[in-house]
């Protein structure tokens, strides 16, 4: 499943952490809306949904998360994924690496 979020790539250069998924600009509401649309379902993600950062230290231009879905209201027999991988463009990994390096001389 390919999920396209509506934010411009300009947001990738935000210099600060955001309040969305994995400290990015992508909110749970936007993610759920796009996922539901892609899967053509009326089911919603419940309170037990989780995200695990699976890209820490691997690459410096995005955040990758393994989302465990908690589907609520799925139709009988509806097959929905239990997990989804979400990749979000972000400069935060590079900024964190840069901040950890010694100052240039």
From TrEMBL:
Range of residues in the leader sequence: none
Top-level taxon of the source organism: Eukaryota
One Pfam assignment: DUF1679
Residue spans crossing the bilayer: none
The species this protein was found in: Pristionchus entomophagus
Designated name of the protein: Methyltransferase
């Amino acid at each position: 499943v390919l999920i396209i979020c509506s934010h411009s790539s300009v947001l990738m250069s935000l210099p600060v952490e955001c309040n969305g998924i994995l400290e990015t600009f992508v909110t749970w509401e936007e993610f759920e809306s796009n996922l539901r649309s892609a899967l053509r379902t009326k089911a919603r993600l419940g309170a037990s949904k989780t995200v695990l950062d699976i890209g820490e230290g691997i690459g410096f231009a995005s955040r990758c998360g393994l989302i465990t879905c908690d589907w609520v209201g799925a139709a009988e027999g509806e097959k929905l994924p239990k997990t989804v991988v979400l990749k979000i463009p972000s400069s935060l990994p590079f900024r964190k690496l840069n901040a950890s390096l010694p100052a240039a001389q």
